[in-house]
UniProtKB/TrEMBL annotation:
<keyword id="KW-0238">DNA-binding</keyword>
<dbReference type="GO" id="GO:0003677">
    <property type="term" value="F:DNA binding"/>
</dbReference>
<protein>
    <submittedName>
        <fullName>DNA-binding NtrC family response regulator</fullName>
    </submittedName>
</protein>
<dbReference type="InterPro" id="IPR011006">
    <property type="entry name" value="CheY-like_superfamily"/>
</dbReference>
């Protein structure tokens, strides 16, 4: 990733340009505010819980 872009910035960029794409941002160092991510993105704190990752993907990436 470019030095001026982190995962939150990338999620915003994707949300603006491709709003149909669901993004998962994971970090153990930061916790974005609710308005920092687009509606099509979810944040997961590290260490990741396998069940939460699967639940998030199932909930938001289901074929519709």
């Amino acid at each position: 990733m470019p030095r001026d872009m982190d995962g939150v910035a990338l999620a915003k960029y994707v949300g603006e340009h491709w709003p149909h794409i669901f993004v998962v941002v994971a970090s153990g160092a930061i916790k974005p505010a609710p308005d920092d991510l687009p509606d099509t993105a979810r944040f997961l704190s590290k260490p990741l819980d396998q069940r939460l990752v699967l639940e998030t993907l199932r909930e938001h990436c289901a074929v519709k």
